[in-house]
Amino acid sequence: MPKQLKTVSSNDKSWGHCQNCNYFASPARIPLPTEEAHCNHPELKKFELVVFGASGCSGFRLRQGLPVTVEEPAAGVSPA
Ligand code: SF4
Questions:
Q1: Which atom of ligand 1 is nearest to the CA of 56?
Q2: Domain range for residue 47?
Q3: By percentage, how much of the chain surpasses pLDDT 70?
């Protein structure tokens, strides 16, 4: 049985947006929030999911070359 993905929490540092995720199968160098692409997460790939760049999940893994700050809340904005 595959390992279950964690539930989402606003303080969960492993959660991130598809557009910044290593598993987002976009050919773009800088994927946009409105872009659609397959999710290639090892545990999700079998479902052939197509996700938006603005989507996200706890299986997120930062794309190579991006700074961790790309997924941090903007200064002065607190999570709901
Ligand atoms: S659904 Fe999750 S694992 Fe798949 S691309 Fe989006 S953030 Fe990454």
A1: 7
A2: 16-65
A3: 74
